[in-house]
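[Q] Does anyone have a clean structure-token version of this?
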Amino acid sequence: MRRLKHLLRPLPTTPTNNAPTSPNPPPAKGFLTIGGTTYIDPHGTYPLTHHLDGSATLIINETDHYITVVTERDHDYGRDHHDPPPVPPARGTQRDLVLAPGERAETWRGDSVRVG
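[A] Here you go.
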């Protein structure tokens, strides 16, 4: 009877050939444009440099992933930046800017752009 129960119990689940083997999401496909630089099939985090003339930086998300503009946190604008943004954010009030696939935005804030 013990062997019969052993034979009839369900098999443990095993990944199929089509299932991803890594817990990390697949890399983005498409183009990410930050200012005048375009990245093909980006993955990871990219620096966001601010223009010395104070103009906004254009970010275009032509990928199939969401991207996040990571905002400045706990910066003293008088010492850390050459040109502070037009209106410095109050500490702790800024949220990261998230762009869906196909969206674009101009920003004066941010330290980097994170894909995924």
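[Q] Thanks! Anything notable?
[A] The chain has a mean pLDDT of 76.
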